[in-house]
Amino acid sequence: MFGVLGSLAAQVPVAAVLVVGIVLALM
Predict the structure, then answer these.
(1) DSSP label at 27?
(2) How do the pLDDT tens digits run along the chain, 27 residues long?
(3) Is this structure's pTM higher than 0.70?
């Protein structure tokens, strides 16, 4: 249970950084 929550908590910021990086690259 905690392992799943931990993996999600670790993936969300990484995905956010990737999205921001793509948006900045397109600008």
Answers:
(1) -
(2) 678 888 888 899 999 999 999 999 999
(3) no
